[in-house]
Specification:
There is one protein chain. The chain has 238 residues and is an alpha/beta fold. The chain has a single domain, classed as Carbamate kinase (3-Layer(aba) Sandwich). Helices cover 38% and strands 17% of the residues. It contains 9 helices and 9 strands. The chain has helices at residues 13-17, 26-41, 58-61, 69-93, 115-123, 141-151, 185-189, 198-206, 221-226, and strands spanning 6-11, 45-50, 98-102, 111-112, 127-131, 156-161, 182-183, 211-215, 235-237. Strands 4-3-5-2-1-6-8-9-7 form a 9-stranded mixed sheet, with helices on both faces. The longest helix is centred in the middle third of the chain and has 25 residues, at 69-93. 44% of the residues are buried. Bound molecules: uridine-5'-diphosphate. Uridine-5'-diphosphate binds next to helix 1, helix 4 and helix 6.
């Protein structure tokens, strides 16, 4: 893969919730902040996008027709701001310099997304957390992450999950399932695999942005991946 310099790490809101499936588990927050700190300490420039599924997803909020889908999506985007503020605190607690930039203006809480400003923060070694998705309903935080990765000219987007990568068949059902080290964008779009939603993958493909899928709960794996370490575990879509 070759060593990377600037990376965008995306993880879902659910990852922050831990066992309970809702809200934020501070021990997980601390663990993830520690993994991100490792990247910063090794001179990588890091952008982060966090989902909001641990609090509200637009589709679920709008499921019985009381809340409109667009309002549900606004609520979803605000959930990502909550998660981003929590992550900012956890990183600062570890001494990492960090800024939150929101796609929706909320100046009492954080900066508004300005591409050039984000670039400068990154150059100065600050982590930038991109909050509030794309700022538009009907999109996902995977799309927001891909968009921001392209805008900041990241070398790669890392979709950090609870699984090691993409397998040839469901590893929960088949114990001979094999991790696929490399996939094409077309394979990544396959319904069974679907590393991200179609919009994100199309955007990544059009802009030749490689997507890495990996397990963020394997300690040290993120750093191994960006360092192009031999025993790094991941799948790459490119
Ligand atoms: N969302 C949105 N526009 C965006 C990104 C997110 O409307 O550009 C809303 C949408 O309702 C989504 C919610 O924010 O369900 C949380 O994001 P997502 O579902 O991607 O979070 P994850 O599943 O990664 O935790």
């Amino acid at each position: 893969m070759g060593k990377k310099k600037r990376v965008l790490v995306k993880f879902s809101g659910e990852a922050l919730a831990g066992e309970s499936g809702f809200g934020i588990d501070n021990s997980i927050l601390k663990y993830i902040a520690g993994e991100i700190k490792e990247l910063v300490c090794n001179e990588f420039e890091v952008g982060i996008v966090i989902g909001g599924g641990n609090i509200i997803r637009g589709v679920s909020a709008a499921r019985d027709g009381i809340i409109k889908r667009t309002s549900g999506d606004h609520m979803g985007m605000l959930s990502t701001v909550i998660n981003s503020i929590a992550m900012r605190e956890a990183l600062e607690h570890l001494g990492v310099s960090v800024r939150v930039q929101s796609a929706i203006k909320m100046e009492a809480i954080c900066e508004t997304f300005i591409m050039g400003r984000a670039q400068r923060h990154l150059e100065k070694g600050r982590v930038v957390i991109f909050a509030a998705g794309t700022g538009n309903p009907f999109f996902t935080t995977d799309t927001a992450a891909t968009l921001r990765a392209i805008e900041i000219e990241a070398d790669v987007i890392i979709k950090a999950t609870k699984v090691d990568g993409v397998y040839d068949k469901d590893p929960k059902k088949y114990n001979d399932a094999v991790l696929l080290p490399e996939l094409t964008y077309k394979q990544g779009l396959d319904d069974r695999i679907k590393v991200m939603d179609d919009t994100s993958i199309a955007l990544a493909q059009d802009n030749k942005l490689p997507i890495i899928v990996c397990n963020m709960f394997k300690q040290g794996n993120l750093l191994k991946i960006v360092n192009d370490d031999e025993d790094a575990v991941y799948s790459i879509v490119k």
